Amino acid sequence: MVNYRFLGNSGLKISEITYGNWITHASQVADDAAVRTVHAALDAGITTFDTADVYANTAAEAVLGRALSGQRRESLEIFTKVYFPTGPMGPNDNGLSRKHIRESIDGSLARLGTDYVDLYQAHRYDHETPLEETMQAFADIVRQGKALYIGVSEWTAEQLRAGHALAQQLGFQLISNQPQYSMLHRVIEGKVVPASEELGISQIVWSPMAQGVLSGKYLPGRPVPAGSRATDDKSGAEFIQKFLRDDILEAVQRLRPIAEEAGLTMPQLAIAWVLQNPNVAAALVGASRPEQLADTVKASGVTLDADTMAAIDAALGDAPNRDAEDTYRVSPERRLV
Fold first, then answer.
1. pTM
2. Which bin fits 70, alpha (ψ -120 to 50), beta or left (φ > 0)?
3. CA gap 157, 188 in Å, rounded
4. Is the dihedral of CA 158, 160, 163, 169 positive or negative?
5. Which long-range contacts (CB under 8 A, 24 or more apart) does 104-107 make?
6. Which residues form the NADP-dependent oxidoreductase domain (predicted)?
7. Cβ(175)–Cβ(201) below 8 Å
8. What is the pLDDT of residues 241-272, one digit of tens each?
9. Which of 101, 162, 209, 333 has its CA 20 to 30 A from that of 245?
């Protein structure tokens, strides 16, 4: 079964392996398969589910809502996000304005079939809306009982500090950040993690397997496997390209004997690695088939000793991206609509 961790400086516990439905529900897999996979997650002890209104242009939220229908709501932690364009994509159908946040939370709750979400997250930082307006809108949502806690995604250290300060002034908790983090993408370690530790903010990390590259199935000098994420535009093919260089793929293959020595599969090693970081509350995993979860959940509770962690660093060498400046390049300078 899956272990639990506190989320930020709060009393909320979440499953350290959290189910995310970014590129699966209403996109990669049929709805009935999605429901079976959610039920497999529940059977494995996963109680925390992460989605966003933008996934499949709101349809992924609806699929998750149907999949969780009939479950005891108090036993679940449901997360969603707001920022990216949804609906007809008019001028106010994106960003973190008061208008868009208010309309988006009501839409998300209706699709998810719940009166509240446990965590409502700013999917990116909105450079075109005053931060005070955004945080006041989040404060109102918390007071209305529509969200219990507030989080963000891919914010810089400075943005986290400013948002945390305003949240304190407005009387609610900013408890999490959702960045990309894996053995191959370590840009948050330089600035974001130290600031988060100081503020009592946890990381809920996405792509802990580097879009599947850390599974070891992509081989240097070989075509990408047919039907894999790298061949499917709906499955984040653009995100995986940066990891498909031969030097990176060669480094990943050097992890195989380390995983075998630790008694782990390659996916388990990748997920266990991110969970060694004490600032990480959860690793987001997706699945298109129930049996995939049976493998990945075994990473929960695994402790990698110092020798194993050192061997991983030695095997990867210069392959990981550690450039802290990359955290400043994620949120668009202007809204997408």
1. 0.95
2. left
3. 9
4. negative
5. 104/53, 105/141, 105/146, 105/147, 106/146, 107/53, 107/58
6. 17-315
7. yes
8. 899 999 999 999 999 999 999 999 999 999 99
9. 333
Contacts of 279 (CB under 8 A, 6+ apart): 193, 196, 197, 202, 203
Beta carbons of 157 and 326 less than 8 angstroms apart: no
CATH for 4-329 is: 3.20.20.100
**305: Cα within 13 Å, side-chain hemisphere:** 5
Pick from 10, 5, 9, 4: which is nearest to 197 by CA?
9
DSSP-based three-state secondary structure for 79: strand
In the chain, the amino acid numbered 301 is G
- Please, are residues 284 and 205 in contact by the beta-carbon 8 Å criterion? yes
Compute the half-sphere exposure of residue 152: CA atoms within 13 Å on the CB side of its CA. 28
Report the catalytic residues.
Answer: 55
Q: Give per-residue pLDDT as tens, 16-52.
A: 999 999 876 555 566 788 889 999 999 999 999 999 9
